[in-house]
């Protein structure tokens, strides 16, 4: 069943995956679809249609080319139908390509305890790519959001090697020693965007002492945030802690976000009016 481009865009904006919105913004003569027809292209899929045939094939190819770039951009192509594209319509179609670069951060959640169970569904509703790691299969809930990767492993510390530079990492396991090993491994990497460790001020002090004995300097140790979460959101219930940590991550990624989609919508409307004026 074909998905509507509006539904697909809503999902992609929530998950932060890169995509290209392809829109027919002008037609002359006979064409397979009317002005305003849209489709969405990602690295692996295309949804909805601008008319099929070679026009759509060429448009998907151009969209995939734009997906290789790392920044938002807009591009216009004019396709003469007929001999050039092997379509019998014989008209001409102008297509706008709007590339929305990848939005989400990778978030690695280590531990599937009560706080993580409350927090992961919240993170799944945000433009984040969540990787949920634990060695205990029975701790994972039956339902896990589709945009959350469940990582069942006997070696959580080894799993950290998969994290890309700049990823956020949350350490919330059931074992203090494992928490420490994950923390030390993260700090040795030195390239993560955020390291949050659940615990008390006493736990934080003990970890700092152990790290100092392992020859970590103060600047490296200061990259560990323990206790993790917003001070303005107190409480010890799992949901309270989950909301506190989620709020902290929202503040982090909002501070790093590029130009908003709202501004892109304004730019598109201005471009559309300009094209309509030229046609007149």
UniProtKB/TrEMBL annotation:
Pfam families: XdhC_C, XdhC_CoxI. Residues 107-249 form the XdhC Rossmann domain. Residues 13-72 form the XdhC- CoxI domain. This is XdhC and CoxI family protein. It comes from Marinomonas gallaica. The lineage of its organism: Bacteria, Pseudomonadati, Pseudomonadota, Gammaproteobacteria, Oceanospirillales.
